[in-house]
Known about the structure:
By secondary structure, the protein is an alpha+beta fold. The chain has a single domain (2-180), classed as Aminopeptidase (3-Layer(aba) Sandwich), CATH 3.40.630.30. The protein contains 6 helices and 9 strands; from the N terminus they run E-H-H-H-E-E-H-E-E-E-H-E-H-E-E.
Amino acid sequence: MKARLVDNDADLHQILAIQKENHLDNVSISNKKERGFVTVKHDFEVLKKLNSKARQIIVSDKNEVIGYALVMLKEFKDLIPVLIPMFTLFESIQYRGKKLSELNYYVMGQICIADGYKRKGLFEKLYLKHKEVYSEQFEYCITEVSSSNIPSMKAHEKVGFKTISTFCDTTDEWNVLLWDWH
């Protein structure tokens, strides 16, 4: 099992299949608490557009994608309507005396591991690949995680993310997490 960059459309389709299986609409309440969930749904065209500017990070077992961690550049802030409020919020959150919107960052758009492969170190492997590939270009990786997604919160903290803000919207309470690479 190795972390690598997406290099074909089949990889993108496999990401979407894992996303669908782990979307909060398709995960039982007990599994949400135990294994986590994802909240945003992408379609193929959106994922392809994101990948055109910054290749997505996946982990595969042979030729099968078993996990992913999506890269979302600031220039795509209007591409996914449900995420627009997050980027707007970045105008008011400060880190080290600067608004997040002024920092050299990208958003880790979503991370997910396929069932049967969770708790095998792949979450960390995906993030280490992010750092390897993108830390020369960016100083920070930022994401947001639902406060109710305890497995994801613990996993992000273990990698090195710090909660720098918390807010509520119509769907949930969210933590804004930042991984400082410098």
